[in-house]
Amino acid sequence: HHKTAKESKLIMASNWTSVTVGGEECKDENEETRSTSSSPAADATTTREEENSAARPDSKGHEGKSAAELLIEDIPWIVRYRQVIVAYAPLGVISFGGPQANVAILRDHIVIRRKWLDDESFMELFAIGQGLPGPTSTQLVVSTALARAGPLGGITAFLLFDIPGMVVLIICGVLISTFVDPNNPPWYLVGLPPAAISLVFQSFYDFAKGLDKLGIVLCFISTLISILVNGDENISPDVTQFVYPLLLVVGGIVSYIDSRRKNPYGTYKSPSPGWDAESDLTMKRIGIPLWMGGLLFIVWAGVLTATVTIVGRAKAEGVTVNVYLEIFEVMFRIGSLIFGGGQVVLPMLQDEVVPNWMAKDSFLQGLGLTQSMPGPLFNFSSYLGAVYQGVAGGLVAWVGIMGPGVILIFAMVPFWCRLRRVRWFKSSLNGVNASAIGLVGAACIILYEGAVNTTADAMVFVFAGTLAMVYDLAAPLVVLAGGVFGAISHQDALGLGQVEWCAPDGGDF
């Protein structure tokens, strides 16, 4: 078909604001001007050309439908699925720098370049990921792909984003556990832990500087309680594991109560507009009905309850638990309790695996390696499992910690268009996120103690932190530079700063 001027105008309008509400087409007041003017950036976008071509109305009963509805119907799913593969395939090898950098890279790919979502929708999906347990950057990858090409698109994007880093870390975990003495690490690894810890400090600063007054208080309380619980030998790890999620729940409740006050201490965003035709069209692409979303919530809760009950009962009765079931239970439980992703997961992982699975030095070396890999920090689990039980252990650990976040984002996205207009949901997220940031602050203190043992370690920490925070160097380069600095300072090289940084048992002054 050849496009007439009228058809071209209709198609261009669909790229902006054309939706159908109650059988009438609603348009932006400036749509006429926009639809008759061309944008070089839009013309250069292959995705838009495909969509415009696919959206051409024909004579087979399409006259009564809006341009947006034609866009959804006339672009074959296989075309959108191929677009997802092309868009997300590079992310698994270029997404360095932690959760914040990953979100920025994804926004550039999805919102700016391809215009699959607008900024508001993108940030809403990001907020939902922040409010769910699991790795936020991975959940954002899944949800944005899900909104483009349905469930298979979401699963494909997840695998493309996470698998490259996971494979490398499993290999590293197997090799380190086989060839490296954790109590006497080689010269080329001594600089990795302090360099990695400097990046945790940077993440805490970046998170905390955006908090409002109430958020700072919640963050401070969360940090203090986490440090207290972690440092008290009289508190069992079985109790500690419930303190972290309790802090997040309390933070959400406090934030919600504050939002109801006439003059709240916190800053709260208004909910998005309610249900409209655009939301209906998005739901069609997602392809998951609400009842299926509810069923996925039940599946997640069932797996969590079953594994925790079986392992807990076996330990209470003194029965030996299958090692892979133990790994899966630990990781699935942590993945179900950690909100905000990223460094928030570190204190819980350390409590569970050190010293039960490995020495602290091995843990910190793996953290440094993970910081230098693309993909989410939750891939650290594959390294931990591989150190403990080889390749199979790494795979089980990775599936265990990723499972809750992926299941829950698939369950939540169908409810997204409705939750956008729920005020209590958005206000509660403020407190949950602030308390989660407090956990990152606690991780800074707890991990610093184990990573910085000598003056040389302290120098690496300051050097790497300066590169990251002052010169904005990418995380892999920061870890690499810290590793080189540590290797040069090693006692087998120049022997610089080989004095204990903190005097044992308090020391004498």
UniProtKB/TrEMBL annotation:
Biased composition (Basic and acidic residues): 46-65
UniProt organism field: Cyclostephanos tholiformis
Region described as Disordered: 21-65
Annotated keywords: Cell membrane, Membrane, Transmembrane, Transmembrane helix
PANTHER family according to UniProt: CHROMATE ION TRANSPORTER (EUROFUNG)
Domain of life according to the entry: Eukaryota
Subcellular location: Cell membrane
TM region(s), chain numbering: 158-180, 186-207, 214-230, 242-259, 290-310, 330-350, 362-383, 395-417, 429-448, 460-488
GO CC terms: plasma membrane
UniProt membrane topology term: Multi-pass membrane protein
Low complexity bias: start-end ranges: 35-45
Protein name per Swiss-Prot or TrEMBL: Chromate transporter
